[in-house]
Every structure is written in C-alpha cells, then in structure tokens.
Amino acid sequence: MSGIKPHAAHWGSFDAVVEQGRVVGVRPFHRDPHPGPLIDAIPDVVHAKSRIDRPHVRAGWLRGERRGAERGDRDFVPVSWDRAIRLVAEETQRVRAEFGHPSIMGGSYGWSSAGRFHHAKSQLQRFLGLGGGYTNQVTNYSYGAGMTLMPHILGTNEVIQGPVTDWRSILRHTKLMICLGGLPLKNALVTAGGAGAHEYVPWLKQVAAAGVRFVNISPFRGDTPDFLDAQWVPIRPNTDTALILAMIHTLVDAGLEDRGFLATHCTGWDRLRPYVLGETDGTPKTAAWAAAITEVPAETIRALALEAARLPTMLTATWSIQRAEHGEQPWWALVALAAALGGIGKPGEGVMFGYGSLNGMGTPRRELPSVSLPATRNPGGLSIPVARVTELLERPGEILQYNGRDIVLPDIRIIWWAGGNPFHHHQDLNRLRRGWNRAETIIVQEPWWTAAARHADIVLPATTTLERNDIASSSRDRFLRAMHQAIPPLGQARNDHDMLADIAEACGFRDRFTEQRDEAAWLRHLYERWRQACARFGFDAPDYDTFWAEGFIEIPPPEEDFVLFSDFARDPAAHPLNTPSGKVELYSETIAGFGYDEIGGHARWQAPEEYLGAPLAARFPLHLLSYQPATRLHGQLDPGRVAAADKIQGREPLLMHPQDAAARGLANGDILRVFNDRGACLAGLRLSEGIRRGVVAMATGAWWDPSPEQGGLDVHGNPNVLTRDIGTSRLGQGSAAQSCLVEVERFDGALPAVTVHDAPRPVAEPVA
C-alpha cells in the first residue's frame, strides 16, 4: 500500500502518507482551522517497538497459577490465534457456568478509537452482553461525580457534556467570564470521536477580541492562554467551594441576590441562605472566612462577586475541579452562585462545565446524532462506577453505596479489558495491582504492550486504526470523516470485531454477534442508519459511496445562538427542569434522603483529608495536581516523538515554583523522587513562576514502569502511583485524584532505564 489515505483520531483528522506499507508521515485535514501537533506522533506509535506482534499467554497461567498470582513478570509465551481463541472461549464458558455472568468484568474506556464501528468498548460490551451478561462500568474518570450530581440539581448532564451555551452567545452577550480551573488550551487538542475542526482557539480569540474579561481561578497561571489577558487568582487547591460560598455571602450582604429568580426558578434557597449567613452552624461564609481557607484575599473575593452582579457573567468550571474529595461541592456551589446572580438560561450567562476541558465544547452545532454501533443490553444488569474498580476487586460480596443504591459487589473471576489502560486512568496503582491479581484470568485486547497488557494472562493483539476502515463521528464536531485503511495489519494483529466474532463462534453465537455483516457491510449499515436519523432533523446527507469517496461530510452550523435552559428561564412552569421540583435544586431532598453524611442536602464547605490545610501537609507539604498532557491523549502516543521531546532525561516533567525548589536545594532539570505513603515515581524538574507556591503538577499518561530493583519505584513518571483511590463521596463515587499530598527530593542514584516502550522478551518459542 502506498499513497495518501484520509483518516482521523481523537486528536484530529489527517491524511496518512504511506510508502510501501508503512506510515511515513501525516498531513492535517485541509479544513481544520487550528490543527494540533499530536498527529506528528502517529507514524512512531503505529510502528512502535511496543506493538504486540501475535497472541501471548502468560506462562504461569498455563501452569495453573491463577487467582492471587503475581502478574507483570513478563513471562509470556507466544501462541497461535487458534489456541488463543480456544483458551478464551473455554475459560469464559467455564467461569460463566461456575460463578455466573457478573463474575466477568467487561472493562474498557471510550478513547480507544475515533472510529465508531471499531470502537473497542462497544465491541467488547456487545460480545459480553450477547454472551449472557457481565459486570459493567458507569460514569467516567473525567467528570463522574458531576455527571451523577447534575441530574439531581439541573435535571440534565447537557450542562457538562453539551450542548452548552455556545461561544457565539458568549461573544455577543457576556462581559465577564469567571473560570474555575481556567480555559486550558492543551485540552482543546482532543475531541472524543475525532475533530475535523479544532475551533476552540479561534472562538476564544474572537471572544477575547469582543472585550470579554476573563478571570482564571486556578493554582496554575497557564490554565488560560496569554492572549486572554486573564486575571489570575492563584487559589489553594480543593478550596473552590469556600470561595464560591463567600461570593454568595457577598451578594446577600449587599442585597444583590436575584430574589425573583431564586423564588420562581429555584427550590432550597431557604435552606442554603441560612448556611451561607452562618445561622445554621455559627460560621458566616464571609470573604474573610474564605480568605483563610483559600489564601485568596478577601477583597479579591468581594470584588469578583460585586462585578459579577453588575455585568452579564458566565461562570464555568473545568471537569478537573470535581476530581477531588467532596468534588461534588464546588460544582453544586457554582450552580447556586449562578442562581443567586439570576443568569441561568439568559444569553451568555449562567453556569456551564467543561468549556476548557475538550475541543467542541461551546462550538455552535446542529442537533444531529453521531454514528454509533447499536447498544447491546446487558442481561446481568450490574454496573459499578468506573472509578471504583479496585473496590470491586477487593471486596466481593460487600456493599458499595452509590447514588442512593446499595450495590452488592460480585466476585470477579475474569477481567476482560479492550482498548484501554486502567494503569493509566486509575488511582493508587500499587493498590490496583493487588486487587487486579485477585482475578483468575485477565484478558487484554491491545495494540501495544501497555501496563494493562503486561499484567494480563491472555494478550490478543489488536490493530491500530490505520490498519482498518472506519467512520469518525462526534456530536461536538461539524465533520464526519471517512477513515480509510492505510496499511495492512502488522504482525498477526486483528481488529476487535473479527477476533471477538471468532470467540463468539467458539461460544455458539457468531451470527448474533456479526449479524452476518463484515466490516464493509457494517460501515454501510451504520452510515445509512445515521443518514436516516439526520433526515429526521432536516439534514440531507449524501449516500455512503459519495461520502466514502470524498472522505468527509461538512455539517453546516446552526443559524441561531444556542442558550442552554433558555426556555426554562423564560417560563419555568411551561418548561420545567427534569428535577423533582422542576426547578434548580439548591437543596435536594433526594440527596439528603440518601443519608450520606459527607454530602448533605446543599452545597457546603468540607475540608479534604489531603490538601494544604490538612494535618498531613506537615509530612507531605506539596499538593500534587495531575492533569491531561499537551503531548498525548491520556497514555496514547506516549511512545511517540511529541511526548518524548517534552520529557527530561526520559522522565515526565514536574512543575514547581522556583522558591519551593530553592528551599529543597533543587535546580531546573534535576531528576526527582516524588513520593508519599502510597508510592513513588521519578520526574524531571521544570521550574515555573506560573504555579503557586506549595503546589506541584505532573501530566498523566507516562506509561507505568515500576522497577523491582528499585522497590517498585516507577522510573518513568506516572503520578497515579501517588494519587489516592477514594470516591468523591458515596453520591458520585468519582475519582478524587486531585486531592493528593506529596514531597520531593533529588534522585542521586544511577538513573534506571525506562524499558516500558520495549516489547517484553518471550520465554519460549511459539507453540501450537
């Protein structure tokens, strides 16, 4: 194969340049106004040394070492596809028969591919559902706590996932935009389902040119780009709730709360107001009170509140704000502040979440579906919040409380993971590995030898997107993109659908799984379903052959601005919210009725166990923030040139204020040992005046590379060896990764090699 092939990834649409069956370069999609640099790493990762060349089985598993076995020892035996399929089918049928369907955990995450057919999570869940059922995962790591909370408070998750009030409305109506967590540019590099157009930066520049004033409330000045000229409010991490409550107090004290809106559009103000004023607990939530907690001057807090009352204001928070202990509280409080300002549902005003968390959030878009594989029912019907995977593995038979439900945790015997790496997403990786090893069998479908593959028993090599045909589609993007196969599969790699079809055949349900369609037939079928759905929304899409030949479809933008909750704002009786009261629930009887002491019935300040105001800070005086990198998507692209160029002696950088470094005798470029009671990793020191004192920050996604010779020290720089694995609360049970204290010291020993980007050496010759 040679030539130019249209393709797409979560980090952008592109054309693959192919010579003699090898991807040698990429070119940005010619309609993308602001393409990012991540596509430059594609040739490296497609042909990386860490590609899995054929099926492998752990030698210990073949010897009968199952539950409790120590995995990650890399003793893999190459096997044929026939044997691998037979082993998987037999083990799956045995476990279903002996322990029941919920004893299989079907794990994955949605970032495996921008392609909607070869989407590993969808394919695996289709297979496991048709096979009888499995234990599934709900919510996500990105905004799991918020997506559980918001239906109780605002009746929808559109305020998080979109469509949110669009940039065009903000440009025309907003005068002040207060941004908790800022509006980071790095997150705008990616769009779930692929981006034909990176429009985040162009829209931000237009909004800035229109004269909107921005405020960046974040420990990191770089969370807003320089061209916004934003006011930086360097808040102490995890204290946003206190600041927001103090802003509400300022409004009430000045008599500036919108009493009409609170009376007609909200319920629970009579419960929240006494708390804010200190009538219920004896502590008025004044600006001075918040200043002691947040280390933001009281005059700054008061000035922001008064300015917001005077000007049309949009309040927003990034998804990362709720990834903390009590993470539901700042989002709930921000809704309350928006209600007190009376802006919810007004053009350019109110509250939205995630503008700075993903490309496409706020981009004007038509109401059209995206291409997708039809969902498959899970007959077992059991699901747990995704961030509670370790608890699932640790506590079989015990109760997990979540969102008013008591979930009896099953005894997991098989972990089956496709298209994702839990040793990237999850917290406290050493604890995860201990829970992981409780399973009898771990099956992983993966193109690369990630930590998940290295900790598996049966490893099935999957193709990358460049080795198959697909369709990239996102409801947040105005382009539909054809993904033409660019090269033949490398080694013995197979796409997830084909390998699962063969396993389904061995289990007796191939025809139900494939519906007697191959890849080409499925793509045509999914496209035609989408085309018919678009017609119902008034969009006439071309036929499949035209689309495939031209390589893309552009969907025109809407003619009018979109303002979320506008109908509700105009007439709350005629257009109630999908909440029990039909109004904004500043106090939720439902949540209060769950009896969770740590959440309460309204937003409130609760000090986390790990933050700079906690006793633990005496031992670990630095607050570690872990963030989405600018050089890859989660752990994807880590073996590529873009990620490698940003590392320091091959280690992930750690940002630190120069004064914190000087106090420890550290210099820019030093290799550090970053540690707490949960673990330790290496990092390269990068000094920055733009991070507040007492805070350090590392990107996630450096592949976990624990060294047995170094006592399990991660020699590469994965911050999730340090983050705490607790739920935000029993309500949301989301990730609390941002509540994490550490200390650092210079690493003066011989620098260990990073080996995780190499394939493990097999222990035996291929066997039948």
TrEMBL record:
Residues 51-505 form the Molybdopterin oxidoreductase domain. GO terms for molecular function: electron transfer activity; molybdenum ion binding; molybdopterin cofactor binding; oxidoreductase activity; transferase activity. InterPro entries: Asp_de-COase-like_dom_sf, CT_DMSOR/BSOR/TMAOR, Molybdopterin_N, MoPterin_dinucl-bd_dom, Mopterin_OxRdtase, Mopterin_OxRdtase_prok_CS, Prok_Mopterin_Oxidored. The keyword Ligase does not apply. Residues 622-740 form the Molybdopterin dinucleotide-binding domain. It holds the Pfam family Molybdopterin. One of its GO terms (biological process) is anaerobic respiration. SUPFAM superfamilies: ADC-like, Formate dehydrogenase/DMSO reductase, domains 1-3. Residues 7-47 form the Molybdopterin oxidoreductase N-terminal domain. CDD domains: MopB_CT_DMSOR-BSOR-TMAOR. Its cofactor is Mo-bis(molybdopterin guanine dinucleotide). Keywords: Metal-binding, Molybdenum, Oxidoreductase, Periplasm, Transferase. GO terms for cellular component: outer membrane-bounded periplasmic space. Belongs to the prokaryotic molybdopterin-containing oxidoreductase family. This is Asp-tRNA(Asn)/Glu-tRNA(Gln) amidotransferase GatCAB subunit C.
